[in-house]
Amino acid sequence: MPPWTSQDFLVIAAQRMHAADVLFQYGLYLDAAYIVGYAVECSLKALILHHTAVDKRLEQLARITRGATMHRPETLVGILHGELGVKLPESIVERFRRQSFAWSVDLRYETGRGDKNAIEALFETARMIYEFVSQELSGGSA
Questions:
Q1: N or C: which end of the chain has fewer CB within 10 A?
Q2: Contacts for 99 with CB less than 8 Å, ≥ 6 apart
Q3: How far apart are CA 12 and CA 38, in angstroms?
Q4: Contact (CB, 8 A) for 65 and 41
Q5: How many Cα atoms occupy the beta-carbon half-sphere of 112 within 13 Å?
Q6: N- to C-terminal Cα distance for the chain?
Q7: Rounded CA separation 16/28 (Å)
Q8: From CA 24, how far away is CA 5, in angstroms rounded?
Q9: How far is CA 16 from the centre of its chain?
Q10: φ and ψ of 111, to 5 deg
Q11: What does the DSSP 8-state code read for residue 105?
Q12: Taking all residues of the chain, what is their mean pLDDT, rounded to a whole number?
């Protein structure tokens, strides 16, 4: 069954973070970076659903899962900020600006141009986002 609630997306994000950590430990850095990109996507989708009005969640769910492709974090942050009025902490926003890769391109190729440090920076940003979303969701049910 596909993810249906903000908690479903958060569980998937946690699973992907764990899988990415294991891949990274085995030196499969590009694969790990690719998977952690999906963890960021799921974390942001969880936050979107959490802050969407109950009567609009089904419509929002269809929108953020449409196309069976990875949704760009910039697009998801745009929905959060522009449509829902939710701001990510400045520490996360600043990391988005400083990252040495573009989120908008397939992460497997983008992070391949960087080094292990760039991929570690991606992991740190993903963890910060996941932890922020976890805290947001624990403040109330979605």
A1: N
A2: 118, 121, 122, 125
A3: 9
A4: no
A5: 8
A6: 18
A7: 14
A8: 29
A9: 10
A10: -70, -20
A11: S
A12: 83
φ, ψ (nearest 5 deg) of residue 90: -55, -35
Indicate the residue type of 74.
Answer: E
pLDDT at residue number 104: 43
Dist CA 114 CA 53 (whole Å): 40
Q: Is the pLDDT of residue 70 over 80?
A: no
Question: Looking up tokens 């991929």, which residue turns up?
Answer: 119
- Average pLDDT, stretch 93-108? 59
Place of tokens 């141009």: 113
Structure tokens at 130: 């996941």
Sign for the CA dihedral angle at 95, 73, 9, 33 comes to: negative
Length of the chain counted residue by residue: 142
Alpha carbon 117 to chain centroid, angstroms: 19
Cα gap 137→131, rounded to integer Å: 10
Lookup: tokens for 118: 């760039």
Tokens standing for 29?
């850095």
